[in-house]
Specification:
This protein is mainly beta. The protein is about 10% helix and about 40% strand. The protein contains one helix and 28 strands.
């Protein structure tokens, strides 16, 4: 029997009686190609086709599962630590290095969902409940900065963008006390879909110790997509934010989320997701000229998280997540023979995380667990993965 319906043609001619299960030969048609009017009953045809569709669908899904297992296991660097999962959607990490006790450093990670939170993890990947901030309206990205002058003293801070609140949330580290009076509004007065929804955050500490927040959003104009705020201590220990500039080009496709700031060299980088990595001066006094636009090819689709590895003396690497390529692409941080704004592709990193958004890196010694530095990457299974920095083979 042949599993064709009445629309299929077949060389030869067939007839069947009304109750026949199969057809016999029939008269020729003018074209010489003869139609099979019916081979099975309609019910039999439908059952056969349905079975075949389900069978092939199951084979397809099985092949995807096998290829996924091969993807995770084959030629990829395994993590040293995988965190406990967050409730909803892991997104962006930040590293706070504890100078008084490196082994007690904190890895922050956002749970990107309404009523999500800013989660704090120890170097063992376990959630630290007393350092975790839950119940934020829609936390997106996070960054850490050291030594903000506040009330005659300095404090380290962690800043998270809260999209639905159109605000920055700022907490002291490690005490995790709020310093923002419930939130600092950003993109005030903006109109348009997504124009007031903060996403990315990069903190910059200039040589004089002043701290700035550079913020991106869900949607924005072709020029001035990012806004930069000067963070200053106000009355009663509450941080105030002063808008100091609007800058940054946007291709008009996808969005701008990931931001990374190189405090030492004074540059800010951000991912124009569908186009490339853009580079500007972090100091607003130096103007809004675009210094570089690199990483424009070689990515499967989206350019996501950016991590800057400081190797000392102005050297190091810029690590960018190739989200749909399940990889990281590496570019040089340092001057290329008198060309400080040339960033050619160097190498690809294949780790075990899945569809990474945010990532972060530090070359500090965190004690026995991570003696030579730490790389952190979000994974699409609600976790963050920690890697010993030496395992990445950067520059090899």
């Amino acid at each position: 029997m042949w599993p064709f319906d009445a629309m299929d043609s077949w060389p030869g001619s067939f007839l069947r009686s009304p109750d026949a299960a199969i057809a016999g030969a029939g008269p020729a048609l003018r074209s010489g190609i003869h139609s099979i009017h019916s081979i099975h009953s309609i019910h039999s045809i439908h059952s056969t086709l349905t079975f075949m569709k389900i069978y092939h669908l199951l084979l397809f899904l099985l092949s995807l599962l096998v290829s996924s297992c091969d993807f995770i296991q084959g030629n990829r660097i395994p993590p040293d630590v995988v965190t406990e999962p967050v409730p909803y959607d892991s997104d962006d990490p930040a590293i706070w290095f504890n100078r008084d006790g490196p082994a007690q450093s904190i890895i922050f990670g956002t749970d990107k969902q309404r009523k999500g939170g800013l989660y704090a993890f120890g170097l063992d990947g376990r959630i630290i409940p007393e350092k975790t901030i839950r119940g934020l309206r829609y936390p997106n990205n996070v960054d850490v900065e050291y030594g903000l002058l506040l009330g005659g003293d300095t404090t380290d801070i962690v800043v998270v963008t809260d999209r639905d609140a159109a605000a920055l949330r700022i907490f002291s580290v490690p005490a995790m006390q709020p310093l923002d009076n419930g939130g600092i509004p950003v993109f005030e007065g903006q109109r348009g879909f997504g124009y007031r929804e903060p996403m990315g955050i990069g903190l910059y500490r200039d040589p004089s110790g002043e701290v700035f927040a550079i913020v991106s959003r869900k949607n924005g104009p072709a020029e001035g997509y990012l806004w930069q705020y000067h963070l200053k201590g106000g009355k009663e220990g509450v941080i105030q934010a002063e808008l100091v500039r609007e800058f940054g080009r946007f291709s008009g496709f996808q969005e701008i989320e990931a931001i990374a700031v190189d405090d030492e060299l004074g540059y800010v980088y951000y991912s124009d997701e569908a186009a490339g990595i853009r580079k500007y001066y972090a100091d607003p006094a130096k103007g809004n000229e675009e210094l570089a636009f690199f990483g424009r090819d070689g990515f499967a689709k989206d350019r996501e998280g950016i991590a800057i590895m400081d190797a000392g003396h102005g050297k190091g690497f810029i690590i960018v997540s190739d989200q749909q390529g399940y990889a990281f692409r590496v570019f040089p941080r340092e001057d290329q023979g008198g060309q400080p704004h040339q960033h050619p592709f160097l190498q690809e990193l294949l780790l075990s995380n899945w569809e990474t958004d945010g990532c972060e890196v530090s070359n500090a010694s965190f004690g026995p667990s991570f003696p030579n530095g730490l790389f952190v990457a979000m994974s699409d299974d609600r976790t963050f993965q920690f890697y010993r920095l030496e395992k990445l083979g950067l520059g090899e």
